[in-house]
Amino acid sequence: MYDHRRARAYSAKGVSYRDYLSPNSPWFGLAEFWSLERSAKRPLNRKLVKTLCLGIASGLLYFFLFEYEGELRHLEQLTRDGEKIDFLVPIIVALVFSVVHGAFTGHFWELLGLKPKSSRHGPQAMKESSDGAA
């Protein structure tokens, strides 16, 4: 929807607000990202806090991995000596790393406004192609 207040603010900068709204523009989405009205509603702040928390958690996980490297090597030796339950520790560590770092990465790119390109090869396209062949 075209907003006349924003249009005046952008035209004062020498840039057309409609240029920011055009999907072909390299600046598409940045107008909404840096908008003062959006920060007044606070969803950007929540996303930023969540991204920072996940980034700090991911960094702490890497720190603790390097800090307790000796204990993990000891668990490796115990597993080789016959303690079979200790094999679960590296699997759990890898799962926690994957979840935390993956969530951080997803929030980070979403915060920057980058989203995956939608493709026609998803589940709906598969259903449509199978319906047409039958």
Number of domains: 2
Percentage of residues in DSSP E strands? under 5%
Count the E strands. 0
Kindly name the structural category: mainly alpha
- Rg estimate, integer Å: 24 Å
List the helices and strands and how they pair.
Layout: H1 4-12, H2 17-21, H3 30-33, H4 36-41, H5 43-67, H6 69-81, H7 88-112, H8 123-133
Helix pairs in contact: 5-7
How would you describe the overall organization of this protein?
It is a single chain. The protein contains eight helices and no strands. The model is unreliable at 36-40 (pLDDT under 50). It is mainly alpha-helical. Helix 5 (43-67) packs antiparallel against helix 7. The chain starts with a helix and ends with a helix. 2% of the residues are buried. The protein folds into two domains: 7-39, no CATH class; 42-115. It has helices spanning 4-12, 17-21, 30-33, 36-41, 43-67, 69-81, 88-112, 123-133. It is flat.
